[in-house]
Amino acid sequence: MPPNLTGYYCFVSQKNMDNYLRALDINMVLRKVVCLLKPDKEIIHVGDHMIIRTITSLRDYVMDFDLGVQFEEDLGPVDGRKCQTTVSWEGDQLVCEQLGEKRNRGWRHWLEGDQLHLRMTAEDEVCFQVFQKVK
């Protein structure tokens, strides 16, 4: 049975965000701003329904979805694109596949103790973030 990810998580660290954003064609100024942000995550996980809020001082981004059901995701606040997104479990990892203009786009969340790990991919770039559960 997959873990329940419900909780509030504070930013701890990230690696390779600038190159990941470059792969998404984000302009240099916005890349620099995003790399300075320290986002928090709030996850509500009830059965096969999830809400994932990424909270920053610049803007928040909310994903509200049912596991295993493809939906159109509006990534306008991120890079101006829309994609067909499916989120499902692969073992203990929550895996998101985002089909659209960019090859190999998506992410994975998993827990290691009280830390939430996030691996984001776009084209050939990989970015990692770590968050600490606080409630």
From TrEMBL:
GO terms for molecular function: lipid binding. Gene3D superfamilies: 2.40.128.20. InterPro entries: Calycin, Fatty_acid-bd, ILBP. Transmembrane segments: none annotated. Signal peptide: none annotated. Belongs to the calycin superfamily. Fatty-acid binding protein (FABP) family. This is Retinol binding protein 5. It comes from Apteryx owenii.
